[in-house]
């Protein structure tokens, strides 16, 4: 089987002029998403992640488009504007860096960020539904081996996430919730499942309701 076409990252990150100010040693959570539209579920897991994983900041990476989703999302500027309007927190930054550097795959984004910011420690954040299909992502093992991962509970996906292919293969790298605050200081592979209070909102439901 031939590998899917994967264009190279176009622009070095530092040249893209899109990184917020950082300080050496900070731990920054990365919440990638289509945000089509952004909603209170995203806001909720961001706030929970800041607390639970001891993060200094979270960057929302508003994606040009999920490579696994058949339908394209709304235009990036529209999603950026909506994301900035809903996510108001002094330690959260909404970013379009993936669009700017031409990265579609998370493996490329994480590599680009780590190369551009060697003084920063990153934690990849995602909802439990994404953990369920994580083993289908491009170079998913290299993501797992290069960045600690914080997973937030989501209705309908809690049990499946814990039984997922990625969770089983990397069971040895599971971090108990009691050690969650140190996740960003740990060497990958390291992943932590946070059983936070859950919000049932989803972008697909909002789209189906015609709210967006
Ligand atoms: N209610 C929620 N609870 C927990 N995690 C969530 C929730 N909503 C979104 N997420 C997580 O936020 C990230 C970005 O999600 P995304 O922008 O795809 O929104 P979504 O609601 O999952 O969209 P869609 O319904 O179109 O799949 C993903 O890691 C997703 O798992
Ligand atoms: O890199 C991949 O193969 C890959 C496959 C599926 C999803 N992702 C990323 O996962 C994040 C969540 O995607 P989504 O569409 O569920 O919001 C977003 O940053 C996507 O780019 C990444």
TrEMBL record:
Q: Name one GO molecular function term.
A: nicotinate-nucleotide adenylyltransferase activity
Q: What class of enzyme is it?
A: transferase
Organism, scientific name:
Roseovarius aquimarinus
Alphabetically sorted, this entry's keywords are:
ATP-binding, NAD, Nucleotide-binding, Nucleotidyltransferase, Pyridine nucleotide biosynthesis, Transferase
Query: According to its UniProt record, in which pathway does this protein act?
Result: Cofactor biosynthesis; NAD(+) biosynthesis; deamido-NAD(+) from nicotinate D-ribonucleotide: step 1/1
Concerning PANTHER family, the annotation shows: NICOTINATE-NUCLEOTIDE ADENYLYLTRANSFERASE-RELATED, PHOSPHOPANTETHEINE ADENYLYLTRANSFERASE
Query: What protein does this entry describe?
Result: Probable nicotinate-nucleotide adenylyltransferase
Which gene specifies this protein's sequence?
A: nadD
- As recorded in UniProt, its EC number(s) are 2.7.7.18
Q: Which parts of the sequence belong to the Cytidyltransferase-like domain?
A: 30-208
* InterPro entries assigned to the protein according to its UniProt record, in alphabetical order: Cyt_trans-like, NadD/NMNAT, Rossmann-like_a/b/a_fold
